[in-house]
Amino acid sequence: MSDIPNVYDAEPIPQAAMAEVTRLLTTGDLFRYTAAADAPVSLLEAEFAAMMGTKYALAVSSCSAALFLSLKALGLPRDARVLIPGFTFGAVPSSVVHADCVPVLCECGDDYRIDLDDFTAKLPEVSAVIVSHMRGHTSDMDAIMALCEAAQVPVIEDAAHSLGTTWAGRKIGTIGRVGCFSFQSYKLVNAGEGGILITDDADLVARAIIMSGAYEHNWKKHPVLQDAFARWQNRLPLYNLRLSNLSAAIIRPQLAELPRRVRDGRRNHDLVAARLNASPWITVPEKLGPEERAPDSIQFNLNAMIEAETHAFEAAAAARGVKVQVFGLSTDNARAYWNWRFLGDIPDLPRTRAMLMRACDVRLPARLTEAECDVIADILLAAIADVMEPPRAYGT
Fold first, then answer.
1. 396 pLDDT more than 70
2. Choice among 177-186, 237-246, 387-396 with the minimum mean pLDDT
3. Whole-angstrom distance, CA of residue 369 vs CA of residue 373
4. Are residues 263 and 323 in the same domain?
5. What is d(CA 74, CA 176) in angstroms, rounded to the nearest whole number?
6. Which of 240, 255, 270 finishes a domain?
7. Fewer CB within 10 Å: N-end or C-end of the chain?
8. How confident is the model at residue 391 (pLDDT cuts 50, 70, 90)?
């Protein structure tokens, strides 16, 4: 068999970042507010907003921080209820808890997307919605936005996995009131850690900027309506969730790489998906019609397999060198809602639970070649055949 691809290493940081990183290390100028203007973080915010077609961007320490600040900037009362998908990462309900709100979990279907019937039933009891485009799978944003606009409920998009994805030609993260993105190492743009929020709402971003840690008059270094800041000076707590100049210097050159990474990631996903769908034991859910994804991993469901067979498939793939994560069977998985014990009472989401018990996740970064993707597909298909199609003895 060909060499097994390493799916965990990120792409090298572009050479264009090296000179700026060296300059920053030489000067020690790592704090975003030291310079009067044109700090790397400020330049990143301007470039990211321009790329996304929004008025404002705020770079922060993580996507979780962006979600938290978005909720705080909405001015929700303590114990306000926030509707989130039952299939998301544990940082999402955590951001709701940090914001002194209460997560309300919504069912998700076999295609990993929000169950619109359950969403519609729970919407009247909430004050805000976070739509997690989990692993880059976009729920029906036309239906969700119509329901939320009619109910006058603001929508925050958790687009941690969806930079570069579009819905009916609109960029994911620009459809709701706020969009939040991640620069963690396993995302298409890698700073190790980091995040950014985007919005067209000047008053909301002013509140978020102050709370992110723009103390005293550092908010004057942001290109937002100054009267919006003046209303909130000294009236909001400072959470100090800023991004450093060093991280911004690493991120900025990667923005130009994004179209290539989106193209190659989609190619890799579709190549492996086509091969896996040829197996009767595997189904890769189809994307929704208006969605054009930017995947860096692949998810698929196991068909008609009992739990022991699922574990055996995981083991067979691992023995060949490919890690398969079954969301509901991996110990303490932060994407299985029943492990969010910090919530107290865990809701019953039978449809989501059933999906998570057979939904598999495999890293498939954009930097892989087509040949490497074929190796991964070969291993997965061989592993499923080991378990479900054992050779029969002669004459039986």
1. no
2. 387-396
3. 6
4. yes
5. 13
6. 255
7. C
8. low
Query: What is the model's pTM?
Result: 0.95
- CATH number of the domain where residue 145 is located: 3.40.640.10
Q: Are the beta carbons of 83 and 119 closer than 8 angstroms?
A: yes
pLDDT (mean) for 307-318 = 97
- The single residue listed with the structure tokens 């303590």 is 78
Q: Which two tokens stand for residue 18?
A: 């090296």
Q: Which domain holds residue 365?
A: 258-388
Please tell me the total count of domains within the chain. 2
pLDDT in tens, 113-140: 999 999 999 999 999 999 999 999 999 9
> What backbone phi and psi angles, to 5 degrees, belong to 394?
-60, 135
Question: What burial letters (b/e) apply to 160-186, b meaning 16+ CB within 10 Å?
Answer: bbbbbbbbeeebbbbbbbbbbbbbbee
Residue 127: predicted pLDDT: 98
Please check whether residues 193 and 269 belong to one and the same domain: no
Please give the distance of CA 323 from its chain centroid, rounded to a whole number.
Answer: 20
Q: Do residues 307 and 251 share a domain? A: no
Q: Confirm whether 301 is domain-assigned.
A: yes
Q: Are 187 and 127 in a shared domain?
A: yes
